[in-house]
Amino acid sequence: LVNLYKLDDKRLYIGNLDSAIDEYTVVKLFEPYGKITHLDYLFHKSGPKRGQPRGYCFLEYSKKEEALKAMTAMHSKVIKNRSMIVTFAYAASENCDSKSIGGLKKRSSTAASNRPTTISLLKSHQMVNVR
């Protein structure tokens, strides 16, 4: 995530959310700490869980002090029998386990992360035999 977003100290990752927690609830939980300027609440787009919440979201405050205050107050707070993970969005991939990032697993070795993906190979490959 570090490469996808600039290092934004106003943007928080909120993870390990129960599926009963909706956008309204997230806003109500976090608005006491400052002015929320943006909320990215993520849902499954396909598969058997299509339309259901992914269990994490990204929330942005107008000031970094507000984000820090919210992170300090809300990290590890238990909501619906789950301990929330609240951290800066740019640090989420380093601080959270694989389940809280939508099931994506972090690559452990630098050699594996330098390996090209299928999509990058397809994009860079010239289709010679197309007629």
Automatic annotation (TrEMBL):
Cross-referenced SUPFAM superfamilies: RNA-binding domain, RBD (SSF54928)
Domain of life of the native organism: Eukaryota
Record's keyword terms, sorted: RNA-binding
Stored InterPro entries: Nucleotide-bd_a/b_plait_sf (IPR012677), RBD_domain_sf (IPR035979), RBM18_RRM (IPR039157), RRM_dom (IPR000504)
Pfam families cross-referenced by the UniProt entry: RRM_1
SMART domains xref list: RRM (SM00360)
Keyword Isomerase attached: no
Keyword Lipid biosynthesis among UniProt keywords: no
One Gene Ontology molecular-function label: RNA binding
Domain RRM: 10-91
Designated name of the protein: Probable RNA-binding protein 18
CDD domains tied to this protein: RRM_RBM18
